[in-house]
Write a structure and sequence with these properties.
The chain is of the alpha/beta class. The protein has two domains: about 15-185, Phosphoglycerate kinase, N-terminal domain (Rossmann fold); about 195-400, Phosphoglycerate kinase, N-terminal domain (Rossmann fold, 3-Layer(aba) Sandwich), CATH 3.40.50. It has 13 helices and 17 strands. A six-stranded parallel beta sheet has the order 3-4-2-1-5-6, sandwiched between helices. A six-stranded parallel beta sheet has the order 10-8-7-15-16-17, with helices on both faces. A three-stranded antiparallel beta sheet has the order 12-11-14. The structure holds adenosine monophosphate.
């Protein structure tokens, strides 16, 4: 594995996997170019060091070639942000001539990798395909995927993976291609920052380490909770999943969201936390509503004694002081998942307060990491994104990394 800062790009062609999967409106205009901006430092580094770029990405979930998902729609923005003309290869498998013609300082963008099923390695069959057909199609695809990867690799002298958002997928361009560059593969800056940002919180953190986990379901966070139980000093549970824990403790949760089939798991987590001496905090005071609606009647209630007809929607201000106390004493804080139904302003107080507490403790010198789609939007919405130490945009990849899973995109570069 190489390091992008030390690698000699002079006269070399670098094939770079980026995540240009940006949202487009009906007129196919980019509505948020954050992901393109995030890859620019890596791309500029290659050009400035005398290398040439072959940029590859997916966009959306096409079932085959389609204008709607063409990367040509984002080409002007890539050129603008990169500050050099970028050529376009309208078929990622037929770009030999364009790649060969690249001179140092020049760039080429390949058309959407997912126009080919080989990128993901998943056969595109109709829903009524039999298991036999699926198996046969998968075997055929596995063979053609080898040629697909080989072709992409043939364009370049080195490989850079800067797409953290897809690092949890073992796709052709995110993992398989790396084997063609045993001595010339490396992470891009975004990928490196994401890995460092998360590692700083979970591998050798400055203690105490507090994790705050919210969101709707225990089931989707189970792997993370299990992994974090081996690392954290304090664990604050919030959001909808709080109620599965309250029920596991014998509380009355009224009509609150609850995963009945996770109650035993919740009990096991509570036991495990106790055995490990972890302070697992389930707040007692919640804001409840008589309907899942912004216009519903609401009141503050004991989380363990919610009347029928009422459901927990947010943490109540009575809980905020305790959060503050725990977090104030922490030197490292990790937050994933909203503390309530934050999409409704009336029930966003807990989530907003958590963002504020994190900003305050960061100012006092703690390392704070916020990750996961909803907590990231909440912190951005509050204007606190640059008041915490690191905001991970990795989404699913970040969650799997927090679960302790060896992500294929990372492994392929390191191995
Ligand atoms: P997740 O994707 O698991 O992080 O869950 C995020 C979702 O959890 C958001 O859409 C929130 O509205 C939802 N959520 C948070 N608290 C509650 C709650 N008390 N009841 C129902 N949904 C909740």
């Amino acid at each position: 594995m190489q390091n992008i800062d030390n690698y000699d790009f002079k006269g070399k062609k670098a094939i770079v996997r980026v995540d240009f999967n940006v949202p487009l409106n009906d007129q196919l205009q980019i509505t948020d170019d954050t992901r393109i901006r995030a890859a620019i430092p890596t791309l500029k580094k290659v050009l400035a060091s005398g290398g040439a770029l072959i940029i590859m990405s997916h966009l959306g979930r096409p079932k085959g070639p389609s204008d709607k998902y063409s990367l040509k729609h984002i080409l002007p923005r890539v050129q603008q942000l990169l500050g050099v003309p970028v050529r376009f290869a309208d078929d990622c498998q037929k770009a030999d001539a364009e790649a060969a013609a690249l001179k140092p300082g020049e760039a080429l963008l390949l058309e959407n990798l997912r126009f080919y099923a080989e990128e993901e390695g998943k056969p595109r069959l109709s829903d009524d395909a039999t298991d036999e057909q699926k198996k046969a199609a998968k075997a055929v695809l596995k063979e053609s995927q080898k040629n697909f990867v080989k072709k992409l690799a043939s364009y370049a002298d080195c490989y850079i993976n800067d797409a953290f958002g897809t690092a949890h997928r073992a796709h052709a361009s995110t993992a398989l291609i790396a084997s063609y560059f045993p001595d010339d593969k490396m992470f891009g800056y975004l990928m490196q920052n994401e890995i460092n940002g998360i590692d700083k919180a979970i591998k050798n953190p400055v203690r105490p380490l507090t994790a705050i986990l919210g969101g709707a379901k225990v089931s989707s966070k189970l792997g993370i909770i299990e992994n974090l139980l081996d690392k954290v000093d304090n664990l604050i549970i919030g959001g909808g999943m709080l109620f599965t824990f309250v029920k596991a403790e014998g509380g009355n949760i009224g009509d609150s969201i609850c995963e009945e089939d996770q109650i035993e798991e919740a009990k096991a987590i509570l036991e495990k936390a106790k055995a490990k001496g972890i302070d697992l905090y389930i707040h007692r005071k919640v804001t409840v509503a008589d309907a899942f609606s912004e216009d519903a009647n609401s009141k503050v209630c004991d989380a363990f004694d919610i009347p029928d007809g009422w459901r927990g929607m947010d943490a109540a201000p009575e809980s905020f002081e305790t959060w503050k106390e725990i977090i104030d004493k922490s030197k490292t804080v990790l937050w994933n998942g909203p503390m309530g139904v934050f999409e409704m302003p009336k029930f966003a107080k807990g989530t907003n307060e958590m963002a504020k507490i994190l900003a305050e403790v960061t100012e006092k010198g703690a390392y704070t990491l916020v990750g996961g789609g909803d907590s990231v939007s909440a912190i951005k919405h509050m204007g606190y994104a640059d008041k915490v130490s690191y905001v991970s945009t990795g989404g699913g990849a970040m969650l799997e990394y927090l679960e302790g899973i060896d992500l294929p995109g990372i492994k392929a570069i390191r191995d």
